[in-house]
Specification:
The protein is α/β, with parallel strands linked by helices. The chain has one domain: SGNH hydrolase (Rossmann fold). It is built from 8 helices and 8 strands. The strands form 2 sheets. Strands 1, 2, 5, 6, 7 and 8 form a 6-stranded parallel sheet that branches. Strands 3-4 form a two-stranded antiparallel ribbon. It is globular, with a radius of gyration of 16 Å. The two termini are 24 Å apart.
Length: 228
């Protein structure tokens, strides 16, 4: 049984009634991965915007295995101290990580965020020495589109993230850097300039799927029609 753990911020946990990119990835793997697999993590809820808390179980598909390690407003800073126990207790084999926007927006600069990436990887490997990780750079968002300094910080972090992945990759515990979804458009792929709509969910899932297919021959090419 191959165990995938989605790790991320508000774009990963999703809101009440949404499918989320986690769901699109699950449907993709159901159609293309030949062996048994599941999604794991210490959390299960969606974010409830009315309650302003991660308390909802209102998934669009009740059959979806909803486990994850994601939180609204959480970033590398928050997940680095949690990933070791989460990976160990949930027996995670592959981490699918989408983090960074929250860090840069509220907590840490590019260099500090990159240092937290390295702490995250070290903690995950201490817990599971053969764990694999796929990491998505910070993707286009409305703040970067309107704030030049923030956009520069995002670009710098993405460069430092690529360097960290290259530095830390090793055969026993491989790291993959997913390519940002090509031509990701905040006007058509998000509902508010940041959080993905159905189009965006597919495109984020595709970024992870392409990385695993090209890097590890895991799954197949992504087909959005097979993940609805």
């Amino acid at each position: 049984m191959l165990r995938f753990m989605p790790v991320g911020d508000s774009m990963t946990i999703g809101s009440a009634g949404e499918h989320t990119w986690r769901y699109r990835m699950w449907r993709h793997l159901c159609a293309t991965y030949g062996g048994p697999f599941t999604l794991v993590g210490p959390r299960e809820t969606l974010y409830d915007k009315l309650a302003d808390a991660p308390t909802s179980y209102a998934y669009a598909d009740p059959d979806f295995p909803r486990a994850h390690l994601a939180g609204w407003g959480e970033g590398w800073l928050h997940m680095a101290p949690l990933i070791g126990e989460a990976a160990r207790s949930c027996h995670a084999d592959v981490l699918l990580v989408s983090l960074g926007l929250i860090d840069l927006g509220f907590y840490t600069n590019a260099e500090q965020t990159a240092a937290n990436v390295r702490s995250f990887v070290a903690a995950a490997r201490e817990a599971k020495p053969r764990i694999r990780m796929v990491v998505l750079p910070v993707i286009p968002n409305i703040r970067a589109a309107s704030d030049v300094r923030f956009a520069e910080e995002v670009n710098l972090f993405n460069e430092l993230l690529a360097k960290a992945v290259a530095d830390l990759d090793e055969p026993r515990s491989p790291l993959l850097l997913a390519s940002p979804p090509p031509s990701y458009d905040i006007h058509t792929d998000t509902y508010d300039g940041t959080h993905p709509n159905a189009n965006g969910e597919h495109r984020i899932a595709e970024a992870f799927a392409v990385a695993m297919w090209q890097g590890w021959a895991l799954g197949e090419e992504y087909a959005a029609a097979g993940t609805d």
